[in-house]
TrEMBL record:
Name of the protein in its database record: Uncharacterized protein
Highest taxon of the lineage: Bacteria
Gene3D superfamilies: Immunoglobulin FC, subunit C
């Protein structure tokens, strides 16, 4: 079983991880859209690089979220579940 390295990975691996992933991807898409609209509308030359980098970061965040493997109930049984699958009380 893989170990989560960050709090976000742990949250994405939780049962409601798919909903969180979708919500975060939507927020990143909205941010990217707003940043690109501001860039297209024109920015002072000294601000362009920062806004471009932020838009690219939002794009990268969406890509990372899209590639994150979601665990399903079948793929991640509760800890020790296999120990009790054959347990028959007397």
């Amino acid at each position: 079983m893989p170990t989560a390295l960050t709090d976000l990975e742990a949250l994405l691996a939780a049962p409601d991880g798919a909903a969180l992933r979708d919500a975060l991807a939507s927020r990143a898409a909205t941010l990217e859209s707003r940043l690109r609209a501001a860039i297209a509308a024109g920015l002072p030359r000294d601000q362009f690089a920062a806004w471009q980098a932020a838009a690219e970061a939002a794009t990268a965040a969406r890509a990372v979220l899209a590639s994150h493997p979601l665990q399903t109930a079948a793929a991640s049984p509760p800890p020790f579940a296999s120990m009790f699958s054959t347990f028959n009380p007397r």
